[in-house]
Structure formats: structure tokens, C-alpha cells
Amino acid sequence: MKGAGLRVLHLGKFYPPASGGMEAHVRTLALAQAALGAQVEVLCANHSVDGTGTSHEFHGRSPTREDWDGPVRVVRLGRLASVARMDVMPSLPLVLRRALAWGVDVVHLHVPNPSMVLALDAVPRLPAVVVTHQSDVIRQKVAGALFRPFEWMLYSRAARLLATSEAYVRGSSLLSTFRSKVRILPLGIELDAYLHPSAEAREAQARWTAVAAGGPLWLMVGRLVYYKGLFTALEALAHAPGRLVIVGEGPLAEEGRARARALGIEDRVTWAGYLSPEALSGAYRAATALWFPSNARSESYGLSQVEALASGLPVLNTAVPDSGVSWVSLHERTGLTVPVGDALALAAAARRLVEEPGLRERLSRGAQERARAEFAHDVMASRSLDLYAEVLGRRPVAEDRGDASVRHVAGGR
Description:
With 413 residues, this protein is an alpha/beta fold. The protein contains 17 helices and 16 strands. The protein has helices at 21-35, 92-101, 114-121, 141-157, 166-170, 173-177, 192-195, 199-212, 230-237, 253-263, 277-286, 303-310, 325-328, 343-355, 359-374, 377-392, 403-410; strands at 7-11, 39-45, 65-69, 72-77, 81-83, 86-88, 106-111, 128-133, 160-163, 182-184, 217-221, 243-247, 269-273, 289-292, 315-318, 335-338. The strands form 3 sheets. Strands 3-4-2-1-7-8-9-10 form an 8-stranded mixed sheet, sandwiched between helices. Strands 13-12-11-14-15-16 form a 6-stranded parallel sheet, sandwiched between helices. The protein has a two-stranded antiparallel ribbon with strand order 5-6. The protein starts with 6 loop residues before the first strand and ends with a helix.
């Protein structure tokens, strides 16, 4: 098998059931690499006091615990506190050194992740380090400037830096500094649950269709934080027909409810909170489109876009400068792209999707075609293992799927 004998240590921030795009990506990649024969371990912070729940908003101390996610060993380190988004984990240095003593071939760090960056900086000798750079620090400018020397120190030691799209590299001063090390590895997901929904997902689809009551059903998925464009979506709904289902929780939830009341649309908004995978899959199948009105480069990609594409759901996204958002779902091929922060343009795109004959069907077909070609989890894992082989000076093992993409992604610059 392609990954046979390879030992990989992933350093994540959290791990499912903690919610979030990075968390989902780490799990998908780790499991897919293990399926290709690699021995994979994940080290991260424990998001929960009792091992339950999906939110990783800090609520007191958490203990260290270990478990197995299929073939992947997951070590969740206890948190003592969380300061400026950095988790204080007293046992991290010792546990990391023990993990490295296991004989790791590749350490794969997923950032933003300040605790793990500092921990690796403190290790004098490291195996090959690969960093997936999911996002620059955008809003926390002071904290970002103070932390930049520690990032720079680690990135200068890393063998490869992985960006999720070429567009994001152009806008990142940090990635541009180390351009010769940068490779592109698009994030993928397990497509099957979306291409072939379960009976439970189809039952959920029927329930969501009933909620729509014959009108358009718009879906928005993600944590309710500043860069997701929640208020743009609510303002757009005031100029578009149908119901908006908002999946997720976060610090802007209450302000969002107040904004909906002020706009007079509160009876057309469903605040769904977090959904089970089956319920979310059903929502994707029932919806008219996914609204993805992100407004800052903190949104570098958007895995919910990929889930929507795999479900055959067109995406209405925004042209965030130097971000991969509008690369994931392409204008007029898998959805429609509008200017950032333009609620009227988002509403117009939604009306066009409803009113223009054949448009939604054409975009739906394009969505699934793009998901199959670009975002399958096994293709992503195969590409990642070829990148590791490049770093380690090993000859990549050719496989039937994804070879052309591997040459594109892993090729030097």
C-alpha cells in the first residue's frame, strides 16, 4: 500500500466531535492516510470536560484522554486555560517528545495553532515537518504581529508548507516569504455520504422540504463569527423569497437574532444550531442553494462548500480577495459569486437561481462533477503521501486515481 511503513503524527488544534473545518479536515486526512497503510496518530487539545459536545469554546479545565478513531490513535491533551486563542496544556512538551520518540517520519502541523507552533519551536531536533497553512491571522493584528517570529522560526525549519489554494498564497506574506517550500493540497472530504445519502439523511431531507413549505430553502453552515457574513445573509433575505436555515452556533448568534427581528424576517429564519451528519446531509439535499457570504481572508476555503457541491447543491459565495473561497465553488459552473458584503447582490443571485429556467439544474450537475474530480478524500490522502515521499526522498507509488493531480499539486516551483 502507498503509505505502508510510514509513521505520521498530526498536530491539530482539536479533533471531532469538536466542530470546525480544521477539525473535520484533520480527521478525514488521518483516516484516509491510515486506509492507505500509514501508521497515524493525532495530538490535539481536549475540547471537552467529559468527552461529549461539539463546541470547543473554553468552559473550564479539561482532562487528558486517549482513544482510537478506527485505526487512528488520538491523544487529547488536557487544557488548564485558554489565553488569546492559545490553549495552555502543561503536559504538551512531555507528550510531544514521547510521541516523537516513537519514531515519527513526518510531523504534520495544522495551523492556526499557536500552542503547537511554540511546542515545536522548543524541540531542538525534529523529523520532517509539513505545515498545512489554513489561514493567516487576519483580525488579531497585534497578537499576530507578536506571534509572527515564532511562526517564522518554525516555517524556516519546515520541509513543506501546504496551502489549500493558489489564490491564498498570493495574499499571504508569510507563505510568499517561503514560496519555494509551498505546495498546493486542496482539502477533500468523504464524498459518499453526500453522493449517496443514507435513509436517515433522506428522512431529514423530507423534513427540511416540509419546513420550506413550497418556497426556496436557503442554507448557511458554519460558526457564527465575524468573517462568515451572517449579517449580509440576513439583509439579503429581506430582499429574497424563501426561508434561511442557519446551521451552527457562535458568539454572533444573539446579535443575529436581534438583526433578524429588526429586519422583519425573524419568521423566515430557522436557527438550527449544530446538526448531526445525517440531518445536515438532508438539509443539503433539500435546500435550493448554500449561502456562503464570507467577508475576510480568515475564510480561506470553506469545507461546507465542498459538502454542498457533493450534494449537488449550488453555492452562492463571495469573491473574497486572495482567498480560495471562489475557487472552491466556481462562478457560473457550480454556483454564483457576488461581491463581498453586498447583500443586494446576494439576494439578486438567489432570485436568479429561482427564476432563470434550467440554471439551478445546470449548476447542480457541475457541482457534483467538480466534487468528484477535485475533492475526494482518497485523492487528497494520496496526494499528501506523495508530498511526504518528496520530502523524504522516496519515490512516490503510482496509483490509478489522482496521478495527474499529484503532478500538479506536488510539482516544484
